[in-house]
Amino acid sequence: MDYTLALLFSLLHVLSVCSAAPLPVDVVTMKSKVKWMAEQLVVRLNKDFQAPAGLTLSPPADDLEGLSFIVVALEGYNSLICDTLNGVAQVKFDISSLTGYLDQWRQGHCSEQRPKASVPGPLQRLQSRKEFIHTVGIEALMRVKEYLSLLLNNLDRLETC
To answer: What is the CA angle 30-33-35, rounded to 5?
Structure first.
């Protein structure tokens, strides 16, 4: 009797482990494309834009609360990057490509309309200081790099609408 019960529990455990649903192929494809795009953007930012000595970003990076929030944050930072900074055109294009891809994927895979995501705290603070356009632009670039690093470490957040 004891062997039967132990065998039954072992069998149930094996079935529960083996029956875990794999991620759909389109989610895996989306994550790998976002990962590639974000990595390329971080490489470009590291190569072309170094943080000025003594610049510390506080508070730390925004939280990742799902696709809509990620799109709002990246679009917001992109809008603050000054077009007159040297070499920034390609970075802005890459950010737009990434946010466009994420938003298009969200529209095709999330059932609800794009919710009004709240603007992250550091982005709100930068938006209120637009008169310092170059300083804000440089900080926005550093925030994008920080945000993309956070995204790369939390790609599972892309599954949340």
So the answer is: 105
d(CA 138, CA 7): 62
Which phi and psi (to 5°) does residue 43 adopt?
A: -60, -45
3-state secondary structure of 130: coil
Give 139's pLDDT tier (boundaries 50, 70, 90): confident
- At residue 129, what is the residue type? R
Q: Which positions ≥6 away from 23 have C-beta within 8 Å?
A: 159
Q: How many angstroms separate the CA atoms of 41 and 119, rounded?
A: 22
Say which residues have a Cβ less than 8 Å from residue 63's Cβ, sequence separation at least 6: 69, 120
